Amino acid sequence: MTRLHIFDLDGTLMHGSAAPVELSRQLGLTAEIAELERAFSAREIGPPEFAVGVHALWADLTPAHVRAAFEGAPWLAGIREVWREIRERGEFCAVISLSPSFFVELLVEWGAHAAHGSVFPEVPFTRPVDVTGILTPERKVEVADRLCARFGLARSQCVAYGDSMTDAVLFGAVPVSVAVNAQPHVAARATHVYRGLDLRDAYQLVAAARPGGEAS
Prior knowledge:
Blueprint: E1 4-7, H1 19-26, H2 30-41, H3 47-57, H4 63-72, H5 79-88, E2 92-100, H6 101-104, E3 114-118, H7 137-151, E4 158-162, H8 168-173, E5 176-180, H9 184-187, E6 192-194, H10 199-207
Parallel strand pairs: 1-2, 1-4, 2-3, 4-5, 5-6
C-alpha cells in the first residue's frame, strides 16, 4: 500500500526549537519570541495573533537571515535519508507546519514532495500578513486532504509525525501516527512513540511494519 508520510516541523523535524525561534535568534530577538511562544503555548493567543506578532517582530528580516536560520537549526539526523527511502519505496513525504511558508518550503530542497506552511509575504516584508493564510491544527488536516487528492491517496494511507497539540487533530484523522519527542498528552494519542535525535529510528517504527514488506 502506497502511503503519504506527513511531518510536522517545529519540535519534530527540529529538536527542541522552532522556525520562529531560529529566525528571531538571527535578529537578536530571543526574549521577544520567547514571550510570543509562551503566550501561544498557554493559548492566550492563537495562530493568527501569533503570526501578526512575529510579522511585526521580523521587520528587518532578510533572505540571508532565513537561510542562516535554516542551516543553523537543530535538525534531527537522517531527514534526507528517510525521505530518500520513502521516495525509493514509491511513497510520498510532505511537511505541514504552522511556521512561515518561506521557511517551511526550503525543506523541498531536502527531498520532500511538498512543504506547506502558514502563508507569509515574501522576505523582506513590504506587505502585512494576511491571517486567512495562516494554518491552524484543523487546517493542517485540510492541507493533508489536498495532498491526498494530489497523490491519488486516501486518509487511510497517511502516516503523521508530530510532537505537540497542534498535531493532535491530524493524529486523530489518520490511522498511523508517530509522536516524536512529544508532550505526554500528545504521545498518548499516537500509535507509535519515539524519543531521540535520529529520524531514521522514528521512521523504522512504521517502515518495519509496512504491509507487504520489511524495512530496508
